[in-house]
Write a structure and sequence with these properties.
This protein is mainly beta. The protein has helices spanning 2-14, 105-108, and strands spanning 34-41, 46-59, 63-74, 79-90, 93-96, 113-119, 122-125, 133-134, 137-145, 154-173, 176-190, 194-204, 208-216, 221-231. Strand 11 (176-190) and strand 12 (194-204) form a beta hairpin. 38% of the residues are buried.
Length: 233
């Protein structure tokens, strides 16, 4: 359940896909903006939610940077984890801290562990076109005993590949109706074992991720998330 929230969260926080060339048009660079997504399992039962708030924005003549806070909740509204991360825009390219790919369970059930991270930031062009191939991203988290020697006791790696813009569609959620890009990607999580899923997401020019669906490699539906509340700063 928490893993599905992880993937949809990761998709939500990286994709404010816009047709504008100016960074200041993006809601990620509008202080006070907030987004709430709700996740459901394959039979439509609520599994959790996550909210992103844009806390502050700094800009110059050539770039923009915002500080965002994400909070993830379980199906009854209990907080699982909260993270702050930075979003940057420079020369038409969005860049997101790797921390946004951090699975909630990686911290929520390892309170006695110190976590260090390494990997590549997630990037996204401000303007998208059908047929575009987007860059891969990867995050590795190393765990050591808090207060003990700096020796890794385990690691978890999240790898996002095969990111492609497949088309344009109109999507309706409780937050409204939006004209969206349809993007597909593969997500692999490696720890003690390995899990692979495929995701399909729909993104609006203005508000970011509107809806996403996850599937097993064999195409079996796992669940979905959708935008339920939107506040423009």
């Amino acid at each position: 359940m928490k893993k599905f929230i992880t993937y949809t969260f990761a998709l939500f926080t990286i994709l404010t896909l816009q047709s504008f060339n100016n960074c200041d048009k993006l809601l990620y660079f509008k202080a006070g903006s907030s987004f709430t997504m709700v996740s459901y399992d394959k039979i439509g039962e609520k599994t959790g939610s996550f909210k992103t708030d844009i806390i502050s924005v700094q800009n110059s003549d050539t770039s923009f940077m915002s500080l965002a806070r994400s909070e993830t909740f379980d199906n009854v509204g209990k907080a699982i984890i909260a993270n702050n991360y930075k979003v940057k825009c420079y020369k038409g390219l969005l860049s997101f801290d790797m921390i946004m790919m951090m699975p909630p369970e990686s911290a929520s059930n390892k309170s006695n562990m110190d976590i260090t991270m390494e990997g590549t930031d997630m990037t996204m062009p401000v303007s998208l076109y059908v047929g575009d191939t987007l860059k891969d991203a990867e995050l590795t988290m190393h765990y050591s005993v808090k207060g003990g020697p700096s020796v890794n006791v385990m690691s978890t790696t999240v790898i996002i590949t095969n990111r492609r813009v497949m088309g344009k569609e109109s999507v309706t959620t409780p937050a409204g109706t939006f004209s969206c890009y349809k993007v597909t990607e593969d997500v692999e999580t490696k720890s003690i074992g390995s899990q692979k899923i495929k995701t399909v997401s729909w993104f609006s020019f203005e508000v970011g991720t509107v809806k996403s669906e996850s599937f097993k490699e064999n195409g079996k539906f796992l669940g979905k998330s959708e935008l339920t509340v939107l506040k423009k700063g």
